[in-house]
Amino acid sequence: MKKFAQSLSRYLVLVTAVVLLLALGTTGVSAGPKDANHCVTPDGFDFNEYYGVSDQILAFFCPQLNAGQRWTRPIPWFMNTSFESVPPEFVPAGDTPLEDFVAKFVAVKYVVDPGTEEEKTYVFPNSDMLWTGVTDGLIEANTLTLGSVEPQKVGQHVVEVYWEFSVLHCDGLAANLEENCIPAGETLFRRSAFEVISGHH
Predict the structure, then answer these.
(1) Cβ atoms of 22 and 29 closer than 8 Å
(2) Where do the domains of the chain lie?
(3) Looking at the whole model, is its pTM more than 0.90?
(4) Which one, of 175, 179, 115, 182, lies nearest residue 143 by Cα?
């Protein structure tokens, strides 16, 4: 649960940072209507533009998807620019936390409607499509660009998003094994309820 709380708080930091940039007028995101496929915060920040994604984005502030549209779920992971602090059992696979992440990350897995007759699983392996950038002074990796999920039927759904790592990865921010590292194997990062609606919203 600590990983969920940390990842959520980091995601909120991202949203807060970009909203501040909008308020200060330091971003090129323009005001006005957006395409219905775009996930836009209440303050007007366009996640599709930020990540360069044309598919619909499912997020806690964008809980509805349009029928007939492919979609993806952002999962951000924030890292230091160097291994400033790591647990003693950690063995890096690169000179920086980002290099370590890229070397050890295996795949992102989406399980839609788990435990039901409609359950479907989608796996997207690590590739050069992995999104990386700098957000609020931290290095961010985000798996939303590795692949998109096929359209779902109209109604209520649930998706679980898992990350798979070959070996223990740590973000270099602190030597806390539970909060700053991801173990080998699969880790559940998000479980999100969402709704698919007819047409555009």
Answers:
(1) yes
(2) 2-197
(3) no
(4) 182
For 24-73, what is the HEC assignment?
HCCCCCCCCCCCCCCCECCCCCEHHHHHCCCCEECECCECEEECCCCEEC
CB-based contact 109:126 (threshold 8 Å) = no
Which one-letter amino acid corresponds to residue 58?
Answer: L
- pLDDT tens for residues 111-125? 999 999 999 999 999
Tokens standing for 37?
A: 């496929």
Tokens of 22: 């909008």
The tens digit of pLDDT for each residue in 167-198 reads 999 999 999 999 999 999 999 999 999 999 99
**CB-neighbour burial class of residue 39 (10 A; exposed 0-12, middle 13-18, buried 19+):** buried
For 52, other C-beta atoms within 10 Å of its C-beta total: 10
Please name the residue that has the structure tokens 């602190």: 174
The amino acid sitting at 111 is V
